[in-house]
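Lab notebook, bench 4. The sequencing result for the construct came back, and we need a structural model before the next group meeting so we can plan mutations. Quick request posted to the team channel:

Model the 3D structure of this chain.
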Amino acid sequence: QVQLVESGGGLVQAGGSLRLSCAASGRTFSSRAMGWFRQAPGEEREFVAGISWSGGRIYYADAVKGRFTISRDNAKNTVTLQMNSLKPEDTAVYYCGIGRGFNIDYGAQHEYDYWGQGTQVTVSS
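Done. Here's the predicted structure in C-alpha coordinate form:
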Protein backbone atom coordinates (compact mmCIF):
# COMPACT_ATOMS: atom_id res chain seq x y z
CA GLN A 1 0.00 0.00 0.00
CA VAL A 2 1.39 3.37 -1.02
CA GLN A 3 1.51 6.04 1.64
CA LEU A 4 2.66 9.66 1.53
CA VAL A 5 3.14 11.53 4.78
CA GLU A 6 3.77 15.26 4.88
CA SER A 7 5.30 16.99 7.88
CA GLY A 8 6.80 20.31 8.85
CA GLY A 9 3.77 22.57 8.69
CA GLY A 10 2.91 25.04 11.41
CA LEU A 11 2.35 28.65 12.35
CA VAL A 12 4.95 31.24 11.39
CA GLN A 13 5.11 34.99 11.16
CA ALA A 14 5.36 36.73 7.82
CA GLY A 15 8.95 36.72 6.61
CA GLY A 16 9.70 33.46 8.37
CA SER A 17 10.58 30.04 7.01
CA LEU A 18 9.27 26.50 7.12
CA ARG A 19 10.56 23.26 5.69
CA LEU A 20 8.02 20.71 4.54
CA SER A 21 8.92 17.07 4.02
CA CYS A 22 7.05 14.29 2.28
CA ALA A 23 8.00 10.69 2.86
CA ALA A 24 6.78 7.95 0.54
CA SER A 25 6.48 4.34 1.58
CA GLY A 26 5.13 1.17 0.08
CA ARG A 27 7.24 1.30 -3.04
CA THR A 28 10.03 3.36 -4.53
CA PHE A 29 9.28 6.33 -6.75
CA SER A 30 12.72 7.28 -7.91
CA SER A 31 11.59 7.11 -11.56
CA ARG A 32 8.59 9.39 -11.08
CA ALA A 33 8.09 13.12 -10.96
CA MET A 34 6.88 14.59 -7.68
CA GLY A 35 5.19 17.81 -6.78
CA TRP A 36 3.70 20.07 -4.14
CA PHE A 37 0.27 21.66 -4.33
CA ARG A 38 -1.63 23.80 -1.86
CA GLN A 39 -5.22 24.61 -1.10
CA ALA A 40 -6.42 27.66 0.79
CA PRO A 41 -9.91 27.81 2.34
CA GLY A 42 -12.53 28.32 -0.32
CA GLU A 43 -9.97 28.03 -3.11
CA GLU A 44 -9.03 25.42 -5.68
CA ARG A 45 -5.95 23.30 -5.12
CA GLU A 46 -3.07 24.93 -6.95
CA PHE A 47 0.36 23.91 -8.13
CA VAL A 48 3.33 25.10 -6.08
CA ALA A 49 6.43 23.23 -7.27
CA GLY A 50 7.45 20.11 -9.17
CA ILE A 51 10.63 18.13 -9.63
CA SER A 52 11.62 15.49 -12.15
CA TRP A 53 12.75 12.01 -11.13
CA SER A 54 16.42 12.99 -11.38
CA GLY A 55 16.00 16.45 -9.91
CA GLY A 56 17.30 17.90 -13.14
CA ARG A 57 14.07 19.70 -13.99
CA ILE A 58 12.33 21.90 -11.46
CA TYR A 59 9.26 24.09 -11.85
CA TYR A 60 7.65 26.68 -9.63
CA ALA A 61 4.45 28.64 -9.62
CA ASP A 62 5.09 32.32 -10.24
CA ALA A 63 3.78 33.15 -6.76
CA VAL A 64 6.60 31.24 -5.05
CA LYS A 65 9.55 31.67 -7.40
CA GLY A 66 12.61 32.93 -5.61
CA ARG A 67 11.19 32.04 -2.19
CA PHE A 68 10.53 28.28 -2.29
CA THR A 69 12.94 25.49 -3.16
CA ILE A 70 11.96 21.92 -3.96
CA SER A 71 14.38 19.02 -3.68
CA ARG A 72 14.27 15.25 -3.45
CA ASP A 73 16.29 12.36 -2.07
CA ASN A 74 15.54 9.21 -4.03
CA ALA A 75 17.52 7.03 -1.65
CA LYS A 76 15.16 8.06 1.14
CA ASN A 77 12.01 8.35 -1.00
CA THR A 78 11.46 11.91 0.21
CA VAL A 79 10.71 15.29 -1.33
CA THR A 80 11.23 18.56 0.52
CA LEU A 81 9.88 22.07 0.12
CA GLN A 82 11.93 24.82 1.73
CA MET A 83 9.77 27.91 2.11
CA ASN A 84 11.39 31.26 2.87
CA SER A 85 10.08 34.82 3.09
CA LEU A 86 6.62 33.47 3.80
CA LYS A 87 3.60 35.70 3.24
CA PRO A 88 0.09 35.52 4.68
CA GLU A 89 -1.16 34.51 1.23
CA ASP A 90 0.94 31.33 1.49
CA THR A 91 -1.46 30.10 4.17
CA ALA A 92 -2.93 26.82 2.97
CA VAL A 93 -2.89 23.08 3.38
CA TYR A 94 0.10 21.75 1.46
CA TYR A 95 -0.02 18.38 -0.31
CA CYS A 96 2.67 16.34 -1.96
CA GLY A 97 1.93 14.09 -4.87
CA ILE A 98 3.63 11.40 -6.94
CA GLY A 99 3.40 11.76 -10.67
CA ARG A 100 2.12 9.12 -13.05
CA GLY A 101 5.53 8.81 -14.65
CA PHE A 102 8.82 10.52 -15.19
CA ASN A 103 7.48 13.09 -17.69
CA ILE A 104 4.25 14.82 -16.72
CA ASP A 105 2.42 18.13 -16.87
CA TYR A 106 3.53 19.20 -13.42
CA GLY A 107 0.80 21.77 -12.90
CA ALA A 108 -2.09 19.36 -13.57
CA GLN A 109 -3.54 17.50 -10.61
CA HIS A 110 -4.72 14.58 -12.75
CA GLU A 111 -1.08 13.84 -13.57
CA TYR A 112 -0.50 12.64 -10.01
CA ASP A 113 -1.33 9.15 -8.82
CA TYR A 114 -0.95 9.45 -5.08
CA TRP A 115 -1.43 12.24 -2.56
CA GLY A 116 -0.56 12.77 1.06
CA GLN A 117 -3.05 13.88 3.70
CA GLY A 118 -1.72 17.43 3.74
CA THR A 119 -0.02 19.65 6.29
CA GLN A 120 -1.30 23.03 7.42
CA VAL A 121 0.83 26.12 6.92
CA THR A 122 -0.38 29.32 8.54
CA VAL A 123 1.45 32.60 8.06
CA SER A 124 0.43 35.45 10.33
CA SER A 125 0.82 39.09 9.37
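The chain has a mean pLDDT of 95.
Will bring this to the meeting.
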